[in-house]
Design goal:
Number of helices: 14
Radius of gyration: 20 Å
Number of domains: 2
Structural class: mainly alpha
Distance between the termini: 41 Å
Number of strands: 0
Order of helices and strands: HHHHHHHHHHHHHH
Shape: elongated
Helix content: 55-70%
Largest sheet: none
């Protein structure tokens, strides 16, 4: 696989070998030149973000380092980018969990949904599970529908739509209606993906009440697609 693989379609690239054994045995790995170079490597790419395959070769040995970055921002490890933008590096630690995809990494990724409150970090984990259509995190996503930040709520609605359990419709709709128009389009898309025809009338009311023509057109598109899905289901 080319190292220039878009982040959200990366499968597990983990290759456990001598390098991983050396890293595990070396308690200074997190502050090593190798980690300082490989952790931000893809993040600094001028092309598009990717997690360094060289870093992933160390397997679960990188997890304590990413735990540290998630907790502190990573600036104390001597990574210039983390010193400049600790929030960006916290998000990147979540991306590494996602790309590594070992059981231990996935446990940490799930833990992010339970323990983190910083919106950008949470959204990175929400998106990662959405790409996997991971139904096990539904309880966490439902809880995040009450998060104080609208962007987190919107992403949670979207991913619940992708997971596709229609018993989640009512809290998804409630969360979508709580959003400002800046974020509401994502919630509406989640309802469209869920495919529950009960969303048609509430979305129609939203489309009728907005004064933003771009937002109205987007909602009308969601409605048409839901109507088409409903008609197809009834025809079968």
């Amino acid at each position: 696989m080319s190292p220039r693989v878009p982040l959200f379609v990366i499968a597990s690239l983990t290759v456990l070998g001598p390098a991983a054994s050396m890293a595990t045995a070396n308690g200074d790995f997190c502050s090593s030149a190798v980690f300082r170079r490989t952790f931000p490597e893809g993040l600094e790419s001028m092309d598009y973000a990717y997690v360094s395959p060289e870093l992933l070769k160390f397997g679960d040995a990188v997890l304590p380092c990413c735990d540290h970055v998630l907790k502190t921002g990573g600036g104390d490890l001597g990574i210039p980018l983390c010193q400049e933008s600790p929030h960006q590096c916290r998000v990147w630690a979540v991306r590494v969990f996602d790309a590594l995809a070992t059981p231990a990494a996935m446990e940490r990724l799930s833990g992010v949904l339970k323990t983190q409150m910083e919106p950008r970090v949470l959204i990175a984990a929400i998106v990662a599970f959405g790409n996997r259509r991971e139904s096990a995190v539904r309880p966490d996503l439902l809880r995040l529908l009450k998060h104080e930040h609208m962007s987190v709520r919107a992403h949670a609605v979207h991913v619940l739509g992708v997971i596709g359990d229609r018993s989640d419709f009512e809290p998804m709709l409630e969360a979508t209606l709580s959003l400002s128009e800046v974020y509401q389009w994502r919630g509406a898309k989640g309802l469209e993906i869920l495919g529950d025809p009960r969303a048609i009338e509430p979305l129609r009311k939203l489309a009728g009440s907005t004064t933003n023509p771009t937002h109205r057109r987007g909602l009308e598109k969601n409605i048409r697609r839901l109507e088409a899905q409903s008609a197809g289901t009834q025809a079968r």
